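Possible regression after last week's pipeline update?

I re-ran a chain I had predicted before the update to compare outputs. Posting the input and the new output here so someone can diff against the archived version. Not blocking, just want to make sure nothing changed silently.
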Amino acid sequence: MNVINEASIIDRIRNDLVGLKMPRALEALGHIVRRLEQGELSALEAIDILLSEELTLRENSRIKTALRMGRLATIKTLAGFDFTFQPSLDRDRILTLAQLGFIERCEVIHFLGPPGTGKSHLATAIGVEAVKAGKSVYFTTLAELIASLAKAEREGRLQERIRFFCRPSLLVVDEIGYLPVIAGGGNLFFQLVNARYEKGAMILTSNRGFAEWGDVFGDPVVATALLDRLLHHAVVVQIEGSSYRLRQHAELMPEHVRSKALITPPAFAPAPKPRGRPPKINGTSLSA
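New output (post-update):
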């Protein structure tokens, strides 16, 4: 093949790559052709590298977009989690959860522990793994979630908003128990949990034991209904330890705060069933 024909073919390849919208392959073409001419690559190896470069770019773009859409802007990874600082955690158990089988089984993971012990980090890291695996993920705090549902209820589109939160394969709800729940918020959260029950996986993080959820949501009946769904197919991970964020300033913390590292959730005892017909929350029977 003469130089003119070779240049013409390369120009056609460039035009084809532009037409196929393959910018990374187009960028790498010149370098790959030079390596091919120098005998460093075979024709098949050159094609393989060219396509791999483009595929990597597209996959990175997909992950970046999915992370943004899922509100996972602050990227946390399992590789970046310091398991040595939280020896109560079973590292192998967390890595098993990161294999994402719980998503296929529509299970709920609960991360419980004091502030700063890594609950949000682990929840986010597993969410990132799910995005990389092609799963749809959405991350929100409980306060943001309830505010969104309350706004939708006022505007007469609550069911539409519940359907929105039911679409992701994995819904991550962070910071349960950190802020007061608005009046009726527990009711709204129950409706969403009930809609996702056995249909979609969730990860929840909380600094409060399950027996305190009646106080968290301001209604022990609603809390009982929530836990009935959320603990049926569940994995509970209790994190014992000090705040990772305050590790460098532990000496400045009061002794009673330093020593109170563990939140021990009291054993959850369902409220006694009332006589007669079971109460309903917005038309949904709590015994359903």
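Follow-up from reviewer: compared with the archived run. Confidence is low (pLDDT under 50) at residues 256-279. Marking as no regression found.
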